[in-house]
Amino acid sequence: MITRLLIVLCSLWGGLSCSDRQRLNPLDPEAPRLGESLGDLVALAGDRRVDLSWDYSSFSDIEGYLLYRREVGGAFALLAEEPLPADQKAYADRSLTNGTTYEYRLGLLVAGEGERSVGSIERATPGAEAMWAADRGSGLVWKVNPDARTARFARGRFFDLWDIAVDNANGACWISDGGFNGLYYIDAEGGVSEVKAALEQPGDLAIDSAAGLGWVADRRRNEVFWFSTTSRDSLEFFVVDASLAEPVSLAAVAGSCWVVDRLQERAFLYSSAGQRIVEFRSLPRPTLVEADADGTAWVLVRDGAGLVRLGLDGEALEVDLPFSDAQSLAVNRRDGSVWVIGEEAIVHFGRTGERIAQWEDVPVGRAIAVDWDRGRTWVATVSTLWKFNEAGETMARLEGFSAMTRLSIDRSQR
Q: Residue 121, CB half-sphere, CA atoms under 13 Å: how many?
């Protein structure tokens, strides 16, 4: 009787109500379209793992799934001896080899039809590296997967996204937002927390993971503060004892921090113990600073037309750049060398200013970050994130951003 009633209702109402029932499998030509990708397989690279996901829950006659993996050029093999249940939507493929590219495909077990293949083959290359990118245009902070094919997640819609800095002690990311009186904190899994503090307009940000300290500039008050990164419920700020006019860039190292004051044309290294270790004046229009492990700093001056190394002995060394509009720099904290990106080129200088390498015809970048452990260089343009190997060859690129301004490497997994 129930079956007969359903048939009668369908004949009376046609597609009005009965078309809303779950259709057959996604290969059924009358099945509803869920979007361009349906529930197709997604592969996200991680550290010695790939996380796979899919969703075909809108279809009624799928009895299970068969998940296959192969190394590039090899043959596909099942990941699990038994079919995965119909309600499963994810699978973690673990104990993989970092740096090896794996390919995955999904088979659907359809009632009365057996196995049917669906979707495309997905690639992923696991690795321990991870990149955080700040997209000021969208107000989002992205955690990009090691192979730069996909992003793990995006968080935010921050009102005035200014800077990001990764805490390599735990893989989390700190964010300064000029529209928030405090800082934001995103943990390694994507959880977002607000940390309120006595800041009026947070600006440049630096994290000293080894010392457990953070440093932040307040652009409205023209002050710089330091705080403990282990006390995140409410930050207690300690002011840097210096009269500042326009603090534009910070570089934290070994319990101290380099502070660049653009308007006063100076840079100094300040200890959290309250001591000014060394100071340099008459730096013409300084913009950015980065430091190596012993505290030596590299500073872009003359609005990016010049580069200066500042030593703890008070000596300054100016290095000629092959371009006049350097946008960003990155320092190898182990050997003190520096990478600078400018007019469609990246140049690499040694600690004493000698030119080690120069790559031509690279994208015009707005930010650069270097993973010296693995010989990887990351470059952010307005809309694209690029990843290069030690020879300057493109390894991957990820598009779709709107106005990237900052990159920060997660070095917590080593």
A: 12
Count of positions (residues) in the chain: 414
**Residues 165-186: tens digit of each pLDDT:** 999 999 999 999 999 999 999 9
DSSP state of 3: H
User: Among 142, 97, 140, 104, which residue's Cα sits nearest to residue 120?
Assistant: 104
DSSP 13-48: HTHHHHTTS--S-TTSTTSPP-STTTT--EEEE-SS
Lookup: tokens for 371:
């993973």
Contact indicator for 395, 387 with CB cutoff of 8 Å: yes
Output the average pLDDT for the chain: 88
Spatial distance between the Cα atoms of 312 and 294, rounded to a whole number of angstroms: 9
| Beta bridge partners of residue 260, listed in sequence order | 249, 267
Angstrom distance (rounded) from CA 269 to CA 277: 5
pLDDT reported for residue 118:
78
pLDDT digits (tens, 9 = 90+) for 11-32: 323 332 233 334 444 444 444 3
* Backbone φ and ψ of 218, nearest 5°: -105, 110
CA distances from 129 to 84, 206, 315, 371, 414 (A): 30, 20, 35, 8, 8
The token pair that represents 226 in the structure block: 């330091």
Q: How far apart are the first and last CA of the chain?
A: 66
Between the alpha carbon of residue 364 and those of residues 152, 346, 347, 409, the distances in Å are 25, 9, 13, 20
Close Cβ partners of 35 (under 8 Å, ≥ 6 residues apart): none
Q: How far apart are CA 121 and CA 67, in angstroms?
A: 11
pLDDT level of residue 260 (50, 70, 90 thresholds): very high
